[in-house]
Every structure is written in C-alpha cells, then in structure tokens.
Amino acid sequence: MKGRVVVIKEYGKPFEIEEYDVPEPEQGAVLLRMTQAGICGSDLHIWRGDQVNVPLPPSGRLMGHEGTGVVEQLGPGVATDSLNTPVKEGDRIVYSAVFPCYHCHLCLRGDTNWCVNRGYAAAGEYPYFRGTYADFLYLPPRHPFFRVPDELPDDILGPVNCAMGTVTTGLMRAGAREGHTVVIQGAGGLGLHAVAMAKDMGAGQVIVLDRLDNRLQLAEEFGADHTINIEEFNTAETRVQRVWELTNGRGADVVMELVGRAELLAEGIDMLSNGGTFVEIGDIVRGREVSIDPSKLLAGKNIVGSLMYRPELLPTLLDFLVRNQHKLPFHKIISHKFPLADINEAFPQAEWNQRQTQITRAVLVP
Ligand SMILES: [Zn+2]
Ligand SMILES: [Zn+2]
Questions:
Q1: Range of the domain at 187
Q2: Structural domains in the chain (count)
Q3: Near ion ligand 1, which residues have CB within 5 Å?
Q4: Does one domain contain both 264 and 235?
Q5: Which of 7, 33, 225, 328 would bridge with 60, disulfide CB 3.0–4.6 Å?
Q6: CATH number of the domain that residue 188 is part of
Q7: Same domain, yes or no, for 301 and 173?
Q8: What tens digit of pLDDT does each residue of 6-48 get?
Q9: What ligand is nearest to the CA atom of residue 188?
Q10: CA-to-CA distance for 237 and 25, rounded, in angstroms?
Q11: Which ligand sits nearest to residue 361's alpha carbon?
C-alpha cells in the first residue's frame, strides 16, 4: 500500500505531493490514518518563507503538525492508549503533536515541549509518514496518544493537539486564574481557543483584538467580553488606551500574543497592570526585533515564552471539550475544508498576512 505526503522543497513555492510505501508499525508503534489536518499559523509562516534562515533538507521537509486520525494498524504489544483505555483499529485518536527525543536534559525533567533535539522531519526517510499533511501518520513506540470520547464530533478535534494545547499552556504559565483580565492579541485558531479556556479558568474579563470582524464576532460567541478592531483603533497608543479604559484604569493581568508580530510585545507590556504577565506564543519567526523600555518591568511585570504543551494536558482538553461542546461554537472554528490534493489552493486562501480572509481555520482532508 502507498500513501501520500506533502513536501516543501523550496520556500515560497508550491508544495509537492510524494508517495511512499506505508510502513508496518513496529513493536509499540501505531499507524494512524489521518482524517483531518489543520493549517496553522506556523505552517503559513513556513510556506510564506518567513523562516528562510532555517535551511530545508535536500529532500524537502514534511509539512503539518496538528490534526487527528483513526487507528489504521496497532503495532505488536499495543492494546491501550496512554491512559490504559483499550484501543482497536478504527478508533479515533488524538496524539501529542510534539515528537521529542525523550533523552535530553529537558525531556528528562518532563519539559518535552522544550526538547533541544526536536527537529523537522525530512522527506523520504523511514517511516516516511511524519507530517500530518498526509494519508497516514506514524506514531513511534511509546508516543503519547489518547482515544477520543465517543460524544465528540470529528470537526472539533483538529485543533486540540496544537492551538488548544498551546494556549492552555500559555495561560497556565501566566498563572491565569479566577477574576483575571486577559487580553488576547489575535482571534484566529489560537485566540478563539484562548478565549474559551480563559473563561473556563475563571477569567473575569477577556478582551480580544483582531482586524477581521468575522473573527471578533466569533470571539464574542466564545465568551469575549470586549473586542477591539485594530482597523478602528489603528495605533498602539489608542489600543493600549482602550484596554486601560475597559479595565477601569487597572490594566490587564495577562496579555497573550497570538499573532506573530514582534511589536505586539511592546504594546502588550503597556497593557499590563503591575505584576501582570505577557505571554509570547505567536512570534515563532526568528530574527525579528522590538525595543522595549526595561524600566517598565520593574514593578513585577513578567514576560514568558510558551511553546506547545506537555502530552499530559491532552486528556484534560478532551474533557474540556466534552463539558463545553454544546455551550460554545467549537464547530465554527474550522470554517473551510480542502482535499489534501488541493493544498496549493488551500494555503493562499488561508493566508491572512496583509489581507482579509473569511477563513478562521482551514483543514486538509485526505
Ligand atoms: Zn500549530
Ligand atoms: Zn529531548
């Protein structure tokens, strides 16, 4: 049996689709058949060429990290998921989208999301299926995965192992809790999940900024108390002032950067109350700079970076969805579906850099 994988061979050029033999899972491994894979902001950065300083392997790089699938084949010795729930072929699975080495000092202390040996999978190397823009995904032995509760529909599962895990970890690192004011810069896939999770964690007030009205509207449906359209408030000064007005002169306890623009760090620090925390998540592109006035940090303001999540969070997120799926419009986050073969049409349509798009989250379906 053969399967397709999407490969990027050159930044800024169309993707190529290659076919490889589908491997038999080894002892402890699992072969998933992908059912959908999300186009994440970080995938757009790669496609757009924002990371030209990261060289591509000669054979090209596999694409896609978030997504969900069903068990195609269990390797010898695999009968349960990571929480001892029995699994069989055809079961729906959410897996950790972090593939760490389990060997470095950070993995040893459990910070697998900060593993120093995480890298991008090169195309053409066994077991071939190591990106989610593909027909299959190979989970190596001992890779964390979880059976999806039957009551959850497929269409809300895609973002669980990227956007949802990432923003929840960011909120936890900021110490977000009951009564806090949380400002969310960017109402895409990350931002909408951040609104829902911040409210679930007890945030008293959530304020969301974006350029797209459809996204801000959706943010309100997810529980945002206030939205700020940055076309209307079109300078950093007016946006900062608006946050201070909306918080009655107290400022925010947490500001989360979910867009990927360096200058939002400086803007976000000015939105914080003393003791508040700025969480940098979106700016994954290296080499961008912003200047800040360090004296603004003296009264206890914090800046923390956050990247992905620990796999133990995934069952908590599935529980969160079970509790909230009928209260919040998770089914609206995935706004567009494209066949995998149409990936070179999907990416230009999902692009939000310097343009408007109706897409909140697009997924590729094999
Ligand atoms: Zn992602
Ligand atoms: Zn490691």
A1: 166-305
A2: 2
A3: 40, 42, 66, 162
A4: yes
A5: 7
A6: 3.40.50.720
A7: yes
A8: 999 999 899 999 999 999 999 999 999 999 999 988 898 889 8
A9: 1
A10: 56
A11: 1
